[in-house]
Amino acid sequence: VILASVVEKETAVAEERPLIAGVFLNRLRKRVRLQSDPTVIYGLRNFDGNLTRAHLQQDTPYNTYTRRGLPVGPICNPGAASIQAVLNPTSTSYLYFVAKKDGTHHFSTTLVEHNAAVVRHQKRR
């Protein structure tokens, strides 16, 4: 349920949920931090809608940038599609994803590819 809640908050695009679940499961297996923005936001008080680097570094029990593994509890009540995505994830080699302007995500297997995607999809906003 915890992972399904993170998947739920990461995307509103139902077709992407199994792929995002697959990415998170890959990261958990490799002991790589999930680095999920919605988990950081959930742990903040008085979040104003602007996620900063300082927020990413602020350690809370929900911050998956500062802590390995899953957050201490769910960050929302996940829908059936997110629960199914975690139970039946897409088998993939992807380890990273970044949101695009249209609400979908760009998926990458390497950090180099991911960093280029971040520049392309996020830094030009």
Write the layout of secondary structure elements.
Blueprint: H1 2-10, H2 17-29, H3 37-43, H4 53-57, H5 80-87, E1 96-99, E2 105-108, H6 111-121
Antiparallel strand pairs: 1-2
Helix pairs in contact: 1-2, 1-5, 2-5
- Low-pLDDT regions: none
Rounded to an integer in angstroms, the radius of gyration calculated over CA atoms is 14 Å
**How helical, in percent, are the residues?**
40-55%
User: Helix and strand string, N-terminal first?
Assistant: HHHHHEEH
Number of strands: 2
User: Mean pLDDT, nearest integer?
Assistant: 95
Q: Specify the overall morphology.
A: globular
What's the domain count? 1
Distance between the termini: 33 Å
Residue share in β-strands: 5-15%
Class computed from helices, strands and strand pairing: mainly alpha
Strand order of the largest sheet: 1-2
| Number of helical elements | 6
Which sheet architecture does the biggest sheet show? 2 strands, antiparallel
Task: Please describe what this structure looks like.
The chain has one domain (2-91). Helix content is 42%, strand content 6%. It has helices at 2-10, 17-29, 37-43, 53-57, 80-87, 111-121; strands spanning 96-99, 105-108. The protein has a two-stranded antiparallel sheet. A hairpin with a 5-residue loop joins β1 and β2 (105-108). α1 packs across α5. It is globular.
